[in-house]
Amino acid sequence: MINYSVYMFKNALMEDAEEKAYARNQVTKVMSFDEFVKHIASHNGVFSRGTVKGVVSDTCTCLVELLLNGNKVKFGELGTFGISLQSEPADSLAEFSAKNIKEVNIVFAPGEDFENLRSKAEFKLVSSRAVQAAALKAIKEGESTINLNDLKKPNTPESPDNGEDGGSSLE
Predict the structure, then answer these.
(1) What is the pTM of this model?
(2) Which end of the chain is more exposed for a tag (fewer CB within 10 A), N or C?
(3) What pLDDT score does 164 carry?
């Protein structure tokens, strides 16, 4: 089940754009590597957690090695891993060198098992994290109401990795 909340967002690149409602998933839990390994091991009684942990860890090490050697790696149903480069421009081909390359990024192309997760997903509308936090604070302080207008944020979404909602979310 994917929990989501709804927020209003205005496209900052378009001056005359109107705010529109968008969904943002709410992460239920950030699983540690050990929790992920334990989960994998629980699906197959043949391999211990230690074996699974070793295989996954070695897989990561080998994947990095292969990518840094210029390979693209097809990882079965999971997908394909490759790299992309970000560089500073030079005025000419002759002036460009490896020093212009600033980042090596991993590119992941999902496999067919991941192509259309929408068709497999179930959704549940929940309050935004800001509303949840305000409600909890009100309960702790013995308040019986909260003002949702006080929770509105500017139209700049936060990074999805930080677990907070951006925009002005009132759901």
Answers:
(1) 0.62
(2) N
(3) 41
